[in-house]
Structures are given as C-alpha cells and as structure tokens.
Amino acid sequence: MLQDSVTSRRSLLGMTGKGVLSVAAIGLLANNSAAIAMGAKGSASVKGDLDILNVALGLEHEAINAYQIGAESGLLDKATLGVAVGFQSDHKFHRDALIGAIKSMGGKAVAEKSRDEYVSSLNAASIKTATDIVKLAQRLEKGATAAYIGVIPSLGNKGLGQVCAKLAADEVLHYTVLTQALGEQLPVGIDGFPFG
C-alpha cells in the first residue's frame, strides 16, 4: 500500500472524537440530513468528529478512484466489472453521506484529489492484469476495514461508533467478495478475530 493510503488510515486510527454526535451519527448512513443537523446543533465541540469524518471521506475518495481506474483499465471481464461498479456505488453513497454530515455540522469536506494523484498514489502503472486490480481493491478494503474498526474504541460517542461499524461492515463485505474471487482463504486472526 502506498504512503498516502497508509498515512490516511493511520490518521483515522489515531484520532479521537469526543463531541456529541449521536443523533447525527445515526442519521448519517440513513441519509437523514434533519437528524444530522439536530445532532450537530447539540454538539459543544465537534472538531475531533469532523477530523475523523474527513479522514473517512478521504478513504472513500480513494476507493471510488481505485474502482474507477480498474473499471477503465479494460482488464476486467463483464461480471467482475459489474461487482467493481457496485462496490464503487457503495463508496459513493458513503462519500455523499459523509459530506452531508460534515456540512451539517458546519465543517468543510476534504476535497477529492486529482485523478493523476490517485493514479500515482495507487501505483496504477503497475497494474497489468485483472488480478492486479482485484488485489489492489482487496488491500484498500482491508485497510479501510481496519481503520474504521480501529477508531471505534477511541470515540467518546456511541452514535459515531455505530456509523464507523456500519462502514466497516460494508468494507468487510467487499473484502470478503474480493478475497473469494481471488481464490484465497479468508484471514484467521491470532486472537480469533480476522480484523481489527
């Protein structure tokens, strides 16, 4: 994984959010902007929460672009392309929900990088086969899973933790499908937990 991706995930893992966001967090993935706005109004300090949401948004931008690079490569068969586009749609939903929450809380959403920056940071030039694309997506999904799970214990707000858990569940689903498509075994953790 490249340095930008690693840095983004480490940033998410290292952040703590102590603001009050439970109504906003519950509304986030339900795409309920009224609930998000209500939660933001009740919050005394949301900077930590905004930082976490913006790092998460950066991960979603990266995933959307990775799937786009794969889709445009011409290397994927029709069935695999369909799965990739479906996963990209999930990430677009996550992106839009995160942007809505950030704006409702009075924050500024982190901008998407240029296409060239993603091509470079994802090392798209090294992609030569469909397997390379699936392996890239698999690595990104696993990293995002770890990031979302890793931040949950540091959050003071259970609602935001619930949002991160929902996002992590989507990432696990994607990772599982990609791992099976590669014919690989799903991970078995040392402590019995394959993620986290």
Q: How does this model look, in words?
A:
With 196 residues, the chain is mainly α. 69% of the residues lie in helices and 0% in strands. It is built from eight helices and no strands. It has helices spanning 3-14, 22-30, 33-41, 47-72, 78-104, 115-121, 130-151, 158-181. Helix 1 packs parallel to helix 7 (130-151), helix 2 runs antiparallel to helix 3 (33-41) and helix 7 runs antiparallel to helix 8. It is globular. The two termini are 17 Å apart. The model is unreliable at 1-45 (pLDDT under 50).
Distance between the termini: 17 Å
Q: In angstroms, what is the radius of gyration?
A: 17 Å
According to DSSP, the number of beta strands is: 0
The structure class reads mainly alpha
Helix proportion range:
55-70%
- Largest β-sheet summary: none
Order of helices and strands: HHHHHHHH
What is the overall silhouette? Answer: globular
